[in-house]
User: Which sequence fits this backbone?
């Protein structure tokens, strides 16, 4: 674990990309091979199967430290990270062994399914032999969520430098559901791809946010427009014997959408389509809320399937007849996509996401204004000559979302944040006016500067009315403009509604609590959103 | 025994009715006993000040023209019906705990303190008492300091590494206490430069006889080129400002107890954080309280709610006192700790 701990310290101790790249590259060149593989896995969000629960960890750590559980919990609320809280609270280690990362993970995984006392003894023994920095990383192996300030792109670049392989090829290799137990470093990064592509998805091409109008993009004739749908971006793969739907988060979601299964009978083998999964009803996409009930279910009850059937709106064709089309111009790929889909029976849950015609930027600006009525969250602008890029490359693909809705509300509860924001009040609950009362309707965490959060934190300290554990009820005095992307009915919430992507657009120091919006304003927006 | 408490808590601060004086008051009072020179404890506007002789020069420097008397550590002084005396708190040079006695009943106000000797401040001395009024800035078990020599060795190694690369090292440390503790404890790899705020306090303490190394105030003409191997000691608020930018390619670090928490360290967006505090850690607080042999404990600032609950579970009669401590330039501040430095 020593090399891994050193790598972590180097990455954690700098904000400079060049320094991170150098540390990663060196690690990939020098660390033991199985450790490299596990590091790639951890940095790309894969983790060993959890053999110990978070509750067990808390209890064992408190017991080992000789502290009551409530004090552990209070400490956790301040530190904001379970793995770190445990590392800090445990008594100093009595031994220092250096086991490899791979060995440590193997030991952890071997605990799966063993009786609690066996697992407890093993974890306590490991805590007692690891130095403090490794203890933290060890806990992270169990709790997951390695945020080391390294993007997948940066890791891929370091790996490319260390192995001399092409970066785009590596990015593709790293996609999908491989795990360190099913592959080797050589197989993953080596020159030849023994396994073939299998069900592995291509890296998704991502768009950058268009700020200001589209005029800066030049001649409108070079550009194509589509709706930006509010669903789940997915990649549908049909290759020899394989039918798979991947989400953008690289999760295999094939089984959650059984209505797509018939597509395997009609799509030719060697086809890969980039599409949006949306809930479908009355010949149009339904609000995101309708899809939400489907996302977290591994199996879908018939009733839900009938209630919110899903449909694929196809954006792009990445592979046809087993041939990688990503280097072809967008126009070519779209023409082939249109031809392919036209050859399918019309009742399949797959259709092309239409191209929106326009002659001038003024035309498309007017079209964008109608997005909400079309159940879209804005437009995508794509250069007709653009390849299908790996990841986010600025210049060819732009998302041009609608301006968010906004409402003025007052802060009524504050809670300190986690991780980087531990010890700072950053999580707020907001209310609007309902007659003489204040009714809470949303939480928001982002949108302010660190300096503003620090100022509000000092304010909260002096204006607390009540404490409920980590939550403070504060004097309803600070007014914020809350921006959001959508609004849905929600029987679970007191206000009867829920916002999509709420955040603080501005701290309205110029406004008092008597100037905030009312619940009626929100209900009117809800009615508008329901069409 | 229907006697009143020896010390009471008012809107002005900690008050002794039978001596008619306040301890570390935050609003102007006729007579103030001061534990130490940090600005949340030694405020402007009182009629008369009493503090240790060692604390007086810095307090005078910070507050200007005040009526103040210095007293030796351990020297009893009768005020009204009570006797007061000052004992080392180990927080910063000259800092004291204040002992108040009336007919055998003893109350002690800790001010801010740390139990580990730092080689500069007069070492903390436990004072037996019936009631102990204590800070608990780091009153959670996640705060546990390594022995100072280990942390100093880390900081020295960091400086040496930077110096070998020809890069200045800038370290953020509170200008009274932490800054001097650093310069006294570190193994040098080059000259020590100081920000004006640090230099003034350093000069005063050096004149008092505290063993401090030679330092040079940063003035026009001093930069990364002229002092490539220097250690620059500056208040945390000076980091990241144009003042600090003259040291191009310098490595920046921050020394504070708060650096024990990764989230706080990362929020400062500083590369390196060294865990070095002038306050007692969890074990220090518990040891200090136990050593007083007290029955009653009042906690003034820090993680007061959980710490009181912990003390009660340990059999103490514990209470929380709302004070205005921990709000200014010292590291006491809990909820605003690690806030973004503003020039």
Assistant:
């Amino acid at each position: 674990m020593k090399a891994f701990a050193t790598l972590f310290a180097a990455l954690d101790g700098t904000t400079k990309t060049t320094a991170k790249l150098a540390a990663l590259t060196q690690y990939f060149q020098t660390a033991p091979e199985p450790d490299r593989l596990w590091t790639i896995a951890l940095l790309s969000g894969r983790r060993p199967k959890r053999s110990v629960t978070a509750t067990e960890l808390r209890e064992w750590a408190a017991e080992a430290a000789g502290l009551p559980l409530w004090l552990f919990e209070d400490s956790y609320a301040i530190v904001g990270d379970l793995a770190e809280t445990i590392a800090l609270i445990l008594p100093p280690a009595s031994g220092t062994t250096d086991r490899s990362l791979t060995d440590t993970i193997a030991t952890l995984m071997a605990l799966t399914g063993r009786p609690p006392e066996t697992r407890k003894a093993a974890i306590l023994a490991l805590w007692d032999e690891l130095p403090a920095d490794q203890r933290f990383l060890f806990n992270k192996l169990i709790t997951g969520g390695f945020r080391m300030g390294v993007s997948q792109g940066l890791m891929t670049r370091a790996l490319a430098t260390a192995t001399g392989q092409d970066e785009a090829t590596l990015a593709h290799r790293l996609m999908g559901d491989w795990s360190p137990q099913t592959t080797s470093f050589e197989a993953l990064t080596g020159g030849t791809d023994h396994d073939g592509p299998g069900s592995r998805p291509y890296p998704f091409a991502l768009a950058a946010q268009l700020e200001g109008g589209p005029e800066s993009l030049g001649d409108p004739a070079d550009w194509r427009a589509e709706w930006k749908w509010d669903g789940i971006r997915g990649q549908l793969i049909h290759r020899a014997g394989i039918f798979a739907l991947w989400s953008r988060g690289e999760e295999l979601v094939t089984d959650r959408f059984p209505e797509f299964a018939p597509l395997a009978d009609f799509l030719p083998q060697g086809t890969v389509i980039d599409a949006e999964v949306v809930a479908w009803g009355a010949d149009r996409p339904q609000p995101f809320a309708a899809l939400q009930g489907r996302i977290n279910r591994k199996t879908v009850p018939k009733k839900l399937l009938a209630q919110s059937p899903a449909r694929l709106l196809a954006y792009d064709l990445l592979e046809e007849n087993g041939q990688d089309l990503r280097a072809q111009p967008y126009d070519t790929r779209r023409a082939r996509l249109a031809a392919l889909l036209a050859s399918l029976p019309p009742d399949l849950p797959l259709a092309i996401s239409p191209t929106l015609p326009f002659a001038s930027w003024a035309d498309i600006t007017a079209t964008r204004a109608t997005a909400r009525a079309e159940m879209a969250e804005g437009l995508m602008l794509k250069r007709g000559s653009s390849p299908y890029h790996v990841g986010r490359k600025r210049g060819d693909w732009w998302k041009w979302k609608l301006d968010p809705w906004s409402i003025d509300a007052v802060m009524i509860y504050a809670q300190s944040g986690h991780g980087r924001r531990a010890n700072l009040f950053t999580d707020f609950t907001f209310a609007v006016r309902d007659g003489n009362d204040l009714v809470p309707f949303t939480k928001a965490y982002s949108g302010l500067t660190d300096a503003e959060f620090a100022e509000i934190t000092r304010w909260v300290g002096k204006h607390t009315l009540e404490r409920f554990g980590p939550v403070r009820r504060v004097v309803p005095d600070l007014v914020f403009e809350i921006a959001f992307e959508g609004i849905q009915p929600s029987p679970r919430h007191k206000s009867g509604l829920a916002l999509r992507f709420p955040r603080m657009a501005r701290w309205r120091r110029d406004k008092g609590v008597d100037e905030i919006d009312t619940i009626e304003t929100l209900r009117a927006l809800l009615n508008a959103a329901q069409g | 025994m229907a006697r009143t408490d020896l010390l009471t808590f008012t809107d002005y601060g900690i008050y002794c009715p039978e001596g008619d004086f306040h301890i570390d008051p935050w609003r102007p009072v006729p007579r103030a006993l001061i534990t130490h020179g940090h600005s949340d404890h030694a405020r402007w506007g009182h009629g008369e000040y009493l503090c240790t002789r060692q604390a007086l020069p810095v307090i005078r420097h910070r507050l200007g023209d005040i009526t103040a008397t210095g007293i030796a550590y351990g020297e009893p002084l009768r005020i009204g019906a009570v006797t007061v005396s000052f004992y080392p708190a180990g927080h910063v040079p000259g800092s004291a705990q204040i002992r108040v006695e009336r007919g055998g009943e003893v109350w002690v106000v800790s001010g801010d303190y740390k139990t580990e000797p730092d080689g500069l401040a007069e070492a903390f001395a436990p004072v037996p008492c019936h009631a102990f009024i204590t800070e608990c800035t780091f009153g959670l078990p996640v705060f546990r300091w390594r022995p100072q020599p280990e942390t100093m060795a880390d900081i020295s190694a960091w400086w040496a590494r930077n110096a070998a690369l020809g890069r200045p090292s800038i370290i953020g440390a509170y200008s009274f206490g932490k800054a001097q503790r650093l310069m006294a404890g570190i193994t040098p790899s080059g000259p020590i430069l100081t920000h004006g705020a640090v230099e003034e306090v350093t000069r005063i303490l050096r004149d008092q006889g505290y063993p401090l190394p030679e330092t040079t105030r940063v003035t026009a003409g001093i930069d990364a080129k002229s002092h490539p191997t220097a250690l620059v000691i500056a208040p945390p608020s000076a980091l990241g400002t144009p003042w600090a930018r003259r040291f191009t390619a310098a490595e920046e670090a921050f020394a504070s107890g708060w650096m024990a928490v990764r989230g706080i360290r990362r929020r400062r967006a500083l590369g390196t954080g060294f865990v070095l505090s002038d306050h007692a850690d969890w074990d220090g607080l518990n040891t200090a309280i136990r050593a007083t042999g007290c029955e009653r404990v009042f906690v003034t600032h820090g993680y007061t709610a959980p710490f009181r609950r912990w003390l009660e579970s340990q059999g103490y009669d514990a209470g929380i006192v709302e004070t205005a401590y921990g709000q200014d330039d010292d590291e006491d501040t809990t909820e605003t700790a690690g806030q973004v430095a503003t020039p």
